[in-house]
Design a protein that fits this description.
It comes from Bacteroides caccae. Monomer. There is one protein chain. The protein is of the alpha+beta class. The protein is built from 13 helices and 36 strands. Helix content is 17%, strand content 34%. β3 and β4 form a beta hairpin. Bound molecules: 1-deoxynojirimycin and calcium ion (CA).
Length: 669
């Protein structure tokens, strides 16, 4: 063969190679984020993510392992790659932002292996991050037992991270700031900042009928997906055709960009409910904090909290203070045996809680009642009663439900495994049938399903206020960590607003009991009073609680903020902040704006431009600030309220004490 022919043959080979490895990369609409897929010589898929042409995540494995030997993670070749784009805006009945833009480029890579397993890897790249998911179709089998997920997140370089350790049972853990390389295990949202200054957060979107994904260090800056197993070690049981939740990485040049992103919601499906006019954000108080302080009890005894008399007092207070709803815990039989395998009866009120009279009274005063189903973890007991118990509530005009799972599930089943995920979803769907809205405590983590199921309004899923009542409490950094971690997943029912910070009025109460060994009797809230107020804005929840007992609000000038506060916001913006250090957020509700800023142990001053206000309008700014001598440790209750008229042209100096904060309501004049 002549040299010329050899060259032609070589070029042809090159050309053929190029044909057999089609283009497998996709960029964000603005071009600054790129995802690439490659398949190695074993047919295992790998992905890369780069930001501004610099690799963020490199050579990261994809796939699953199946217990009966079906190959879900290798032997693949690419059959076809298709591209798509979307740019739409959509609205929701409530949320941090009622209107959201969903703007992405998509790449779907169809792969097939020798077992004829068809796998579509779907990548969506937005200007604020990426999402990818697995869509499997496995012929000749009925079911699959997934024993491992192979997905890794291999960072090109080390960085700082903020997360809680992985746990199959609880998210009520303290956040750690540590190098990515030193993380052993983590739950998501796992927030990070690389040495290049890129902020990001790994999480998942649209988690249904699967177990949750946590992360485990496998070295070389690599975190591997770990799925919470069933008691027999199988991670997930699926039919031969399944789609995973989206594995997501939010990406932003600044930490607040993560908060301002709606990527998690964009990766969820549109609302499936026919009507949503029965779903509305509101403020509430509750017969609640007294129990955590040990001043009142859930069970019926001489200190019982949920009595008809107390209920009416709370309803009166709500009606007088522009608060729409009241929660009652400890209203039903079953609390006597707290701590064992609970057997609550969800339709049997205690004898001193006259539900008919309370409902009648609440109606007369225009107040909603928030019901409570504490399961103690006994899911079979709850599932037996759930439908009927929700019907019973709605028959009593109760349309808002707080659920609770404080206790282990039976038979070694986990809160965060596939069984748990399916249970929590069953509650959401059953509640929707009864037109009930939900606030879940000890929930499965939020993955944005509120877009599809907007009756799933808020949840706990992190250390909330309750921890201050009976433990060393939540440190000042906790509240400025949550917006950059837990709250990226969705709203949180933290229950802010305890005004009796040192429990002065309850500590020496003869009624107060220590109720566990963790309770050293010296518990307190670890913030200033102004920061408690700011948290009503910062810690977004469409059902927002004022947590304290009402006697601590009676006549308190600073409670005016909660009276004025509108939880039904239209738009939100995080203005400034760093994880665990500080944050400043503003929310617009109708014509008014509510601002909240908070700091960790360090005092801090921020210059806040009011250019978020509507130009040309005047606003009365009511400022709830730390007092001159305020300090979360030594002088937490020192606060001051001032008023001034402002416009969008002004800048305010926001001074915050150590462990302090500031809240401002801007009322349009
Ligand atoms: C834990 C929940 O977080 C809390 O709000 C509730 O009061 C108790 N469980 C009792 O249900
Ligand atoms: Ca809890």
């Amino acid at each position: 063969m002549k040299v010329k022919h050899l060259v032609v043959a070589f070029l042809c080979m090159l050309g053929c190679c190029a044909c057999s490895s089609p283009k497998t990369e996709v960029k964000s609409p603005d071009g600054h984020i790129k995802m690439t897929l490659t398949v190695d010589e074993n047919g295992t898929p790998f992905y890369n993510v780069s930001v501004n042409d610099s690799l963020l995540i490199e050579n990261s494995k994809m796939g699953f392992v199946e217990g009966n030997g079906v190959i879900l993670g290798g032997g693949f070749r690419i059959e076809k790659t298709t591209f798509d784009s979307k740019d739409e805006t959509w609205t929701q009945p409530w949320g941090e932002n009622k209107t959201n833009r969903n703007h992405y480029n998509e790449m779907a890579v169809n792969l097939i292996n020798e077992d004829q397993v068809q796998l579509t890897l779907r990548f969506r790249v937005f200007n604020d991050g990426v999402g990818f998911r697995y869509e499997y179709n496995v012929p000749n089998v009925d079911s699959l037992m997934i024993t491992d997920e192979l997905t890794t997140f291999h960072f090109r370089q080390d960085g700082t991270s903020w997360s809680i350790p992985a746990s199959a049972e609880t998210y009520e853990l303290l956040y750690k700031q540590q190098p990515i390389s030193e993380v052993e295990t983590a739950n998501t949202p796992f927030t990070f900042k690389t040495a290049d200054g890129v902020y990001g957060s790994i999480h998942e979107a649209a988690l249904y009928d699967f177990s949750e994904m946590t992360l485990k260090q496998i070295g070389d800056y690599t975190l591997k997906a770990e799925l919470t197993p069933w008691p027999d070690g199988i991670k997930v049981r699926k039919s031969n055709h399944f789609t995973t939740s989206w594995r997501t990485i939010q990406i932003a040049p600044e930490a607040v960009g993560l908060i301002n992103s709606s990527l998690i919601l964009n990766l969820n499906d549109p609302c499936v409910l026919e009507t949503t006019d029965w779903i509305r954000p509101l403020k509430y108080i509750g017969v609640w904090w007294g129990m955590h302080l040990g001043v009142e009890t859930w069970k019926m005894d001489e200190r019982h909290g949920a009595t008809t008399v107390n209920a009416k007092k709370y309803i009166d207070f709500a009606a007088a203070n522009n608060i729409e709803a009241v929660l009652f815990e400890g209203w039903n039989e079953g609390w006597e045996s707290w701590g064992g395998m609970q057997n609550f009866d969800f339709t049997k009120p205690y004898a001193d809680f006259d539900i008919d009279e309370i409902v009648r009274y609440a109606k007369e005063k225009g107040i909603e009642i928030i019901g409570h189903h504490e399961t103690g973890g006994n899911i079979p007991n709850y599932e037996r009663q759930m439908d009927h118990a929700m019907q019973w509530y709605t028959d009593h005009s109760i349309h808002i439900l707080k659920t609770g799972y404080a206790g282990a599930f039976p038979n070694g089943l986990s809160h965060h495994g596939q069984y748990g995920v399916n249970h929590y979803q069953k509650v959401v769907e059953t509640a929707a049938e009864h037109r009930m809205t939900l606030d879940a405590h000890e929930p499965i983590k939020d993955t944005g399903i509120r877009r599809t199921w907007p009756n799933m309004m808020t949840r706990e899923g992190a250390r909330g206020m309750e921890w201050n009542a009976w433990s060393e409490g939540n440190p000042p950094s906790h509240h400025v960590m949550l917006p950059f971690t837990r709250l990226l997943s969705g709203p949180m029912d933290y229950t802010p607003g305890t005004f009796d910070i040192l429990f002065q009025q309850t500590k020496d109460s003869p009624r107060r009991r220590k109720w566990n060994d963790q309770d050293k009797g010296n518990s307190r809230v670890n913030t200033t009073l102004a920061k408690q107020i700011a948290n009503w804005v910062i810690l977004y929840s469409p059902l927002q609680m004022a947590s304290d007992m009402i006697e601590h609000y009676e006549g308190h000038p600073a409670f005016r903020f909660f009276r004025d506060f509108d939880p039904d916001c239209d738009e939100s913006k995080a203005l400034a902040g760093e994880p665990g250090e500080f944050v400043a957020v503003v929310r617009k509700a109708k014509n008014n704006y509510f601002f909240g800023a908070a700091t960790n142990e360090a005092p801090r001053t921020l210059e806040i431009k009011l250019d978020f206000l509507k130009p040309g309008k005047q606003y009365k700014a009511v400022i709830y600030a730390d007092g001159e001598k305020a300090d979360w440790k030594t002088n937490p209750a020192d606060y001051q309220i001032t008023e001034q008229t402002v416009t969008a042209e002004n800048t305010l100096t926001v001074r915050m004490a150590a462990g302090g904060g500031q809240a401002i309501s801007f009322i349009q004049l």
